[in-house]
Amino acid sequence: MNTILRFGEMKAEQFVQGVNNNWIIFSPLLYAKQHSSGIDNMVIINNLVTKEIVDADLDVTIDSPYDYVYSISTDNRLKLSFSKSKHTDKTSALDALKCVTIIYTLGKLKPNGEYYRVVARNSLGEEVHRTTPLTLDKVDKVISTFDDTRDVGTSGFLSYQIVRDYIVE
């Protein structure tokens, strides 16, 4: 079973500036099948000329015809690397990637008791927060806390997605 999401829906955890390339480390692919530290070919990035590499090669000069290279290790964090001339900063890279879709393989999912996760997204659809597993009686407190402390006039509105929590076997 596969799932699909856009880069714009993922949280960019870190922007790294290397010698040859820059790269962005995204939050883990939710409920993805466990990746190895090698090349698995279990992820498809649409509309970009990419190839999968190992983490150690993120700063190696990217060969033509590829515009991007990516790596996914055992932590299931996607690391997307690009030449410094392609994107000089995090903002320009994220803006160019926001509508690009990623298809990946889900792991074998087992419900984690009666726990759920709340994913908060800004008005652009970007993930701004993901909770740890919560029971349903705590979900409304998380949502009301975000709504009560957010200045909608300057920060825009939030939308929420409540997702059952699973353990990947």
Characterise this structure.
The chain has 169 residues and is of the alpha+beta class. The chain has 3 helices and 12 strands; from the N terminus they run E-E-E-E-E-E-E-H-E-E-E-E-H-H-E. It has helices at 90-97, 136-149, 152-155; strands spanning 2-6, 12-17, 21-28, 43-45, 50-52, 68-72, 77-83, 101-105, 109-121, 127-130, 134-135, 159-168. Strands 2-3-7-6-5 form a 5-stranded mixed β-sheet, with no helix packed on it. Strands 9, 10, 11 and 12 form a 4-stranded antiparallel β-sheet that branches. A 3-stranded antiparallel β-sheet has the order 1-8-4, with no helix packed on it. The longest helix has 14 residues, at 136-149. The radius of gyration is 17 Å and the shape is globular. The mean pLDDT is 91.
Question: What is the gist of this entry?
Answer:
The chain is built from 3 helices and 12 strands. It is an alpha+beta fold and 169 residues long.
**How is the main sheet built?**
5 strands, mixed
Measured distance between first and last alpha carbons: 14 Å
Shape: globular
Q: Indicate the radius of gyration in whole angstroms.
A: 17 Å
Low-confidence stretches: none
| Helix percentage range | 10-25%
Tell how many strands the DSSP assignment holds.
12
* Series of H and E elements: EEEEEEEHEEEEHHE
Structural class given helices, strands, pairing? alpha+beta
Q: Enumerate how many helices there are, as a single number.
A: 3
Residue fraction in strands: 35-45%
Can you list the strand order of the major beta sheet?
2-3-7-6-5
Average pLDDT: 91
